[in-house]
Amino acid sequence: MNQRDDINTWAIYRAQEILGREGMDLAKSARSFDHKAIRENGMLLARAIAASLIEASATMPK
Predict the structure, then answer these.
(1) Using one digit for the tens of pLDDT, what is the confidence trace for 14-25?
(2) Is-contact 44 25, C-beta < 8 A?
(3) For 62, how many CA atoms within 13 A lie in the half-sphere containing its CB?
């Protein structure tokens, strides 16, 4: 496995984690029409995505 494959595998697992947690919470709040929870969970999802992008860029080789 080369470095590109390692990064791709990491990205897939990270995306699954984020969607399993924050994405599911957002879907549940949307299903219940809880507008406050939709906003809050949407922001949590955005933050998790941003954090994973920062994490990925910090570990990428120069």
Answers:
(1) 999 999 999 999
(2) yes
(3) 1
Which residues, at least 6 apart from 21, have a Cβ–Cβ distance to it below 8 Å?
Answer: 48
Contact yes or no for 18/52 (Cβ under 8 A): yes
Cα(4)–Cα(26) distance, rounded to whole angstroms? 31
Compute CA distances 59 → 13, 17, 54, whole Å. 16, 18, 9
The set of residues, in sequence order, having a beta carbon less than 8 Å from that of 25 and lying 6+ positions away, is 37, 41, 44, 45
Helical (H) or strand (E) element with 2: none
Task: Report d(CA 23, CA 21) in Å as an integer.
Answer: 6
| pLDDT of amino acid 62 | 61
